[in-house]
Amino acid sequence: xxxxxxxxxxxxxxxxxxxxxxxxxxxVSTKSEHRGDxxxxxxxxxxxxxxxxxxxxxxxxxAGHPVVYADWLHAPGQPTALIYGHYDVQPPEPLDLWISGxxxxxxxxxELYARGAVDDKGQxxxxxxxxxxxxxxxxxxxxxxxxxxxxxxxxxxxxxxxxILRNRDRLKADMVVISDTAMLAKGVPGIxxxxxxxxxxxxxxxxxxxxLHSGSFGGAVVNPAFALAQVLAQLKDRNGRIGIxxxxxxxxxxxxxxxxxxxxxPFSEKKLQREIGAPxxxxxxxxxxxxxxxxxxxxxxxxxxxxxxxxxxxxxxxGRAMAKVSMRLVPNQNPARxxxxxxxxxxxxxxxxxxxxxxxxxxxxxxxxxxxxxxxMQAMARAIQQGFGKKPVFTRTGGTIPAVATFxxxxxxxxLLMGIGLPDENAHAxxxxxxxxxxxxxMLSAVHLWNELAEMxxx
Amino acid sequence: xxxxxxxxxxxxxxxxxxxxxxxxxxxVSTKSEHRGDxxxxxxxxxxxxxxxxxxxxxxxxxAGHPVVYADWLHAPGQPTALIYGHYDVQPPEPLDLWISGxxxxxxxxxELYARGAVDDKGQxxxxxxxxxxxxxxxxxxxxxxxxxxxxxxxxxxxxxxxxILRNRDRLKADMVVISDTAMLAKGVPGIxxxxxxxxxxxxxxxxxxxxLHSGSFGGAVVNPAFALAQVLAQLKDRNGRIGIxxxxxxxxxxxxxxxxxxxxxPFSEKKLQREIGAPxxxxxxxxxxxxxxxxxxxxxxxxxxxxxxxxxxxxxxxGRAMAKVSMRLVPNQNPARxxxxxxxxxxxxxxxxxxxxxxxxxxxxxxxxxxxxxxxMQAMARAIQQGFGKKPVFTRTGGTIPAVATFxxxxxxxxLLMGIGLPDENAHAxxxxxxxxxxxxxMLSAVHLWNELAEMxxx
Lengths: 459, 459
Known about the structure:
In chain A, 34% of the residues lie in helices and 20% in strands. The first copy, chain A, is built from 14 helices and 18 strands. In chain A, the strands form 5 sheets. In chain A, strands 1-2-6-3-7-17 form a 6-stranded mixed β-sheet, sandwiched between helices. In chain A, strands 11-13-9-14 form a 4-stranded antiparallel β-sheet, covered by helices on one side. A 3-stranded antiparallel β-sheet of chain A has the order 4-5-18. In chain A, helix 1 (3-10) packs across helix 4, helix 5 packs parallel to helix 13 and helix 12 (375-388) packs across helix 14 (436-455). The longest helix of chain A has 20 residues, at 436-455. At the A-B interface, strand 10, helix 6, helix 7, helix 10 and strand 11 of A face strand 10, helix 6, helix 7, helix 10 and strand 11 of B. Strand 11 (298-307) of chain A pairs antiparallel with strand 11 of chain B, so a sheet runs across the interface.
């Protein structure tokens, strides 16, 4: 057995304790009050990189949250892989639904519960430990690596593109390795070769200057909450089709072969429905659940607010109403074009009796779809087969990793997505968790990955 | 000049300071954390009653917040008036829109700013001071009075009916005097002879057990915020007509004479629009603003919540969505019947893909309309003419005072509504205020009222 593998096995339990320290830092990127925690998390990553022998470790400031960079480039003639991940996390709210505190990592039934456990601190940690295993047992890595761990993924990576553009030379790589996705189910390891894109908006509707008494004014004054409900209700029709003119123009039709391949994947709609506790799985008519999630765009309301939302009754006629609305995009939709179409459409359908402000509040993510026959993709498949003891399947995900499109565009490097999450691990929701078996097998796979990439011959 | 009038004039400024103490008590009835403040406000009223020489002063517990009772019954052969008001207030939120603190009463430009200034602490205080003026200068009142000041008006007076029913004998009165309404405009004193009724609901829509990642699940899972928006958007049509089947069945058609009378009132739509900062006044097609406010029922969204409403972006697919929806009713709509129709309708139009809970969360208010030629109504008109130096107009209001219908039904006594508020005094909204000239003229009118009622002969 490879000494790096033995190393991972020997430290299996110690690694969990180490990861807990990383998870205790509430590095919520969307909230300014967590600025200090973000710094601390970046520092934690940099310290961990230095401790395992990586070089040129640097916490680099950006216009937003810092990027952490490191490299190890002592394998001449071998390819260079860029490992990308993020140390920032989603807000933990609503707090009352967490069984244990979001920043108090707790193991229950072989699963580690904490905000960021699977998205993405646990998966960043997995790579650090696999590199450590090689370096501590061999004093070297099979190939060259660079690491780029950012702090703004959960807010759409607004400063990443610029930073990558300015550091294009220093980031030169033959492939990008990312672990920030989930497999289809436990025991079904996979490689993700497609992502949806993302655009995110806030709609602010104003009726009157301030809230009014609903008795004294109700019936004679516009209700912005009602106007907002009218706008939102029109965005999708009965068949789940998005009503923005031109929205589907560039959507690539799914070839029959891909459709059959999706249908053949070991995926259970019943199981998904049970896991999330939904009365039914619903979506755009004419498509299966996996097609809806991976190959079709969607529009969702992410937040809604108006008037009085406390306990009890307040007879207020709200002066303002707000909605957060985002769209997931698929090949070949262009985020800038869809953003323009959305803005025009909501302004057009908004009643003239209110004022509406449309604000794009997150960086854009471009949809991505990669061929599965690339030699690096095949090398990763062999690594996963050794790490998990099972041949991986090729899947897509409905989520977005804005950096992937950037790497394709700016570094001309293919992305390899090896995610060890599970669909029910509550990323972005209360009780986020990480399966510790998957973490372990993921570390083993990552150890094998560097060997496989070293042995692979790029055409 | 009547010595009671001189007394009011001499204490004009001292009274404002006294009222401030009452306004400093945050007696918000809808929030359980204010239970202590509610008790304190009830005690403040009782102490004030005792100090001016009222008798049988009592803070009476109910199943909810206490009722404060007092009387003075030493005018044999004279009628008995029951003065009704409330010491509870609306929640002050949103706090950031207040120029001075809601419970830090502050005078600016002749107006006293505080939650409860006009609704209804200031108007209760007005009556206390008019009684004080008679009692301190004459040692007696011209007629008999009872006072009933409750603490649950802002939550629909859920315990008042039962209490009045049980104390029907002790509350025997020839008329009920209430000051909890507004006049049409400054310089246009009035008597309110019509009120709308009220029913209030909370809609809770549940999609999935908890919030989900909008990338991983968006497009294949129901969005409860979207389902709620669809339900709400259907409740009114383009013409502002409420879409609940049977809703308008019992609405009394406005006689042509009343319609002309409304049109002749000194009311400016332009001024109202400017005051509230609305781009336009809108409502049910085919009706004037005053008709919409006073004679037509309405349905309003009072609150809306789902998902993430903080700053920034969170890519969450909400598990739940909530709306508060209330209806103002007019003669001869029956609140129980409309509540049933509403509940049936929203359940019928709610998509089957979500679970919806419909909860009535406030006491019901029955609509009320009284003839203006009653001798007591005419006596009040003379009192106001003397107090304000101007003949009052008869108006209605879009608001609700649930107790009025109760008094009609249980005490068989006519209600006399002498309100000294102004339409732009922000009742139920931030920066609630009370015009101090109106407070003063209201006190003078109340002093005259007891004389006029003593001289009136009830048929």
